[in-house]
Amino acid sequence: MAAGYLGYLNYETRSKIRAFEQQVIASASESKPGKTNEQTPLLTGLPEPVRAYFHYVLPNGIPEGFKWVEVEQEGDFRRPHTGDFNPTTARQVLATTLPNIAFSADTPVFGAAWATVNDTYINGHMDMQAKLLTAIPIMRETGNDTLNRISLRRWLLESSLNPVALLPGGIVAWEPIDDYHARAWARAEGYETSLVATFDDSGALVSFHAEEDGDLTTPYHGSGEHVTRGDYSLIDGVRVPMTFEISRMAQGKRYPFWRGRITSIAFGK
Questions:
Q1: What is the pLDDT of residues 176-212, one digit of tens each?
Q2: Residue 216 region by backbone torsions, left for phi larger than 0, else alpha for psi between -120 and 50, else beta
Q3: C-beta of residue 113 within 8 angstroms of C-beta of residue 132
Q4: Cα 252 from chain centroid?
Q5: How many whole angstroms separate alpha carbon 172 and alpha carbon 185?
Q6: Residue 53, SS3?
């Protein structure tokens, strides 16, 4: 009977995760159409490394109507306040013209037991929870100003997986820094956040980092403060980075907690 009840709770959790994903997709579908292929006017006035980035990741021009992206990942994850990495699989859905995101992952916690993590940020409100065996609640955090802003930053940190989301005229605006760096601002739902992008000579965005220290005492990693990206591949006419390492960062030091590669990516219209 206990196994059957755990099975039911597992099914219920998985169903809720899929419902959150569908909520992100529905909100994206109802949003304004994505950018058109009129690339040159949109890129006028951008900092030079940002303009080079869009030419690199959108070699065929701006695609029509990309409204969300679905991503599956695998790699190694380190839980907060631990030192060991464990094999982890994850999935996330990100909207293009809205900062909505649904993330879920399965990671070992001890022995054969695992935890399922489910983070969502929809319409400016964040909800984060973890369940042992995808059934038993072990952590829950709900939105407040700090967490909602961190979640907006998370959408920005992940947005290089969907470069259309970084185009001007939407949520994101760019400020120049130098030949290899620019500051990206995301503003939505009464919140704002920024990350500094680093670009290489090809135009690829190789990292995003926050300019303020993270609070390493929290029971969650949140967005992290630093991400590196690499191994760009052309998918549906868009170059996206297939490898990543996301870290907490404070006092000039990085503490990686999630690293791996994309195993599947699909754009939705």
A1: 999 999 999 999 999 999 999 999 999 999 999 999 9
A2: alpha
A3: yes
A4: 23
A5: 5
A6: helix
Token pair in block for residue 188: 């939505």
Contacts of 46 (CB under 8 A, 6+ apart): 54, 168, 174
pLDDT at residue number 54: 97
pTM (global) more than 0.85? yes
In the numeric block, which tokens belong to residue 90? 């994850």
* Distance spanning both ends of the chain, measured CA to CA: 44
Judge whether 246 and 73 are in contact, CB under 8 Å. Answer: no
User: 73, 55 in Cβ contact below 8 A?
Assistant: no
Between the CA of residue 237 and those of 9, 51, 53, 61, 89, what are the distances in Å?
Answer: 41, 17, 14, 8, 26
Query: Which residue carries 């009977």 as its tokens?
Result: 1
Nearest-CA neighbor of 87 among 264, 260, 204, 205? 260
Asked whether the beta carbons of 39 and 58 are under 8 A apart, the reply is yes
